[in-house]
Amino acid sequence: MKNNIKTIELFLKGSSFYRGIVLTIAVVIPLFLFNYIDIFKYAPSIVLGAFLSAPSDIPGSLKRKINGVLITIILSTLVTFIILICKPVFIVLLLVIAALSFLISMISVYGFRASLISFSGLLAIVLSLAVSKPDMQSILIHTGLIAVGGIWYLVVSLLAGWIAPKKDDDQLLSDTLLLTGKYLKIRAKLLSKPHKRDKFSKKALIIQTQISEKHETLRELLLEGRKRSGRSHSNERRLLIFISSVDIFELALTNTLDYSKIDTLFGVNRQHLKAFKKMNKVMGNHLITLSELLIKKGQLPDDTILNTTLDETLQAIQDYKNEITLPKAREGAITLRNLNEYQKQLLEEIKAIRRVLGKVKSSSKVLLKDQESQQFLTLQEYRFNIIVQNFSLKSPMFRHALRIAVAIVFGFAVGSVLGVKNAYWIALTIIVIMRPNYGLTKERSKNRIIGTLIGAVIASAIVIITENTTVYMVLAIISLTFAFSLIQQSYKAGAAFITLTIVFVYALMDPNAFEVIQYRVIDTILGAGIAVLANYALLPSWEYKNLDGVIFEVIQANNNYLQATKTLYHKKGTNHLEYKVYRKKAFLAMSNLNAAFQRLTQDPKSKQKESVLIYDIVTLNHTILSAIASIGSYTINNNTTNPSEEFDILIAGISTSLNNAASLLNKDEMQKLYKPKHIQWAQEKLIANYDTLSQARDKDIAAGNVAIDSDFLLHLREAHLITNQLIWLKTLSSNLRKVTVKYKAAFS
């Protein structure tokens, strides 16, 4: 019960519910005002304009937000005008719907905000079919009032932003910390549950993608906001939390362990890993608690358990050394020590977030220059050439645009010919459900139908209980608020509240509410069926056909990140900006590959071709990214020795393997592999260097010098980490090249 109350509180104080209230205000005020001044007939047009403008109002920079809503207003107004003047001739209307649906859907090639503008345009097409305007004057008045309604919504939205300017920032930061906390807890399970690693690895990939998406939006919000409004204390505090969350995410990726080696080292001594698993779990739970404070405020949680659990990890290292004894325990002890250092760094970042949330005056300041911050932003290009390049059947978006145009026309035509009441509801369901990939369309169809049925049952019960129009009006307003609030978080719940809203609105105008409910359910099922069938049978875009480019991008990004890490290792103490920019690009490329693989798993089993090979490619790229990040993170956080010749030779060999894997995908000429004897020599030299340090330590122990010099310990740890990570990277890059050969052969 306590958790349910907390969940409800977080939802009611969150930005989604706030945005739902904003839309409700923008819809309700014109209705009451125009009714009061006795010109209610004009209110629906203004309400429609406000409703059509709302989807493009998403978190982002103020400039993009305003531009997005203004473009939506222009598009919605123009589309409504065109549809209304074509309505008298049914054949012409169908042709115009087809053309507009296709062209508007193509706008989505310009990114997520553009896809929501496109959605509003499609929505305008369908909702125009519900309107009857007999002459040009009434059409012009209606379309003009839609534009007024859009401007009205923009004003209300900007006013709401002025009242609560950091609502979106706090929500996104909260969501990011929540996901990061969950990610750390999954990492704990990976450490201790070898038989379930495949299951937890797939969950971790999904969360990684979600975290990367949140980071991208936060970069735009916080870095653009900082540039626009200056370095205010509140902006700096949120930016500090964001930077720490990025560092935590990188550290977590950095410490992706060679689990086969972990199992070998601790197979029968797994109890020594329990403290480290507990530490990850405690830190994950602490981040989740901090994420809640960003929304509901309150006192910071006690951090005693964080410190005591960290002490337990130190004791676990000592217990392991006592049980196994040196020098036999050295390999495992260094591995545990590195794990302990990683968790210490995580803890420092968590404490940094605590200091910011506690408004500690000594919190560090953000020294990032505006010119530097711009390099971390992923800018969306809006060149006309982009849409021209996508005018090809090879483009998934082009195929989707054709598919949705045919589905909308077919659904509306069938409904009209069969005399279905409100046939445009079929087209509306298609627009809301249909997505470029089959799996998501199928999932949304299922949730839409279930949500509609739930809403229909609840509405039926209320209509049976009472015929009070005041009750219907109040419930319609409440349902609208929750529908818009929940549509992104839970599509099923959102669909239920949308159904409630529609039924209660119609119940205010038509006493036969049960007929409305009946047709609502029928039209939803028809629309959902058409959407799924069209995605499966009409120019389907199966994910396995689109993977080459995504895999190529992630291999190239990893290779660039590897070269930046090499530069970092050579030029210690210099500006880390270039390294961090390449790190961000590699993380984003990996996130895109993770997302593509998730879409592949949602396709029908018969269309998941070579999914095992593709999963191998995904996990290999992810592990390569983690191993590179491990070297980079260690270099930034520790004093390292001068790079050796063997270090550079191994990096060159790894880079060549990555380039050759990418060449297979891009059909470029392959590079000659480094001579095996050079690679082998470099590997043996690195191992020999580490063995020399180990033997020196063994002599000290034999002579009774148990205490170890701190500098010597750092050199030993560095040799262990660099040697193991480079040899691991060499194996991983070679395996990636071999798997890529098999992958290309399977589809040749």
Description of the molecule:
It contains 28 helices and no strands. It is mainly alpha-helical and 748 residues long. It folds into 4 domains: 164 residues, no CATH class; 194 residues, Methane Monooxygenase Hydroxylase, Chain G, domain 1 (Up-down Bundle); 121 residues; 204 residues, Methane Monooxygenase Hydroxylase, Chain G, domain 1 (Up-down Bundle). Helix 17 packs antiparallel against helix 18. It is a multi-pass membrane protein. Its main location: membrane. It holds the Pfam family FUSC-like. Belongs to the YccS/YhfK family.
Key terms:
Methane Monooxygenase Hydroxylase, Chain G, domain 1; 4 domains; cell membrane; mainly alpha; about 80% helix; about 750 residues; 28 helices; about 0% strand
Summary of the model, kept short:
The protein has 748 residues and is mainly α.
Average pLDDT, all residues: 83
The CATH topology label of the largest domain is Methane Monooxygenase Hydroxylase, Chain G, domain 1
CATH class of the largest domain: Mainly Alpha
At CATH level 2, the architecture of the largest domain is: Up-down Bundle
Order of SSEs: HHHHHHHHHHHHHHHHHHHHHHHHHHHH
What coarse outline follows from CA principal-axis ratios? elongated
**What's the total number of strands?**
0
Number of helices: 28
| Poorly predicted ranges | 366-377
Radius of gyration: 29 Å
Distance between the termini: 57 Å
* Helix vs. strand class: mainly alpha
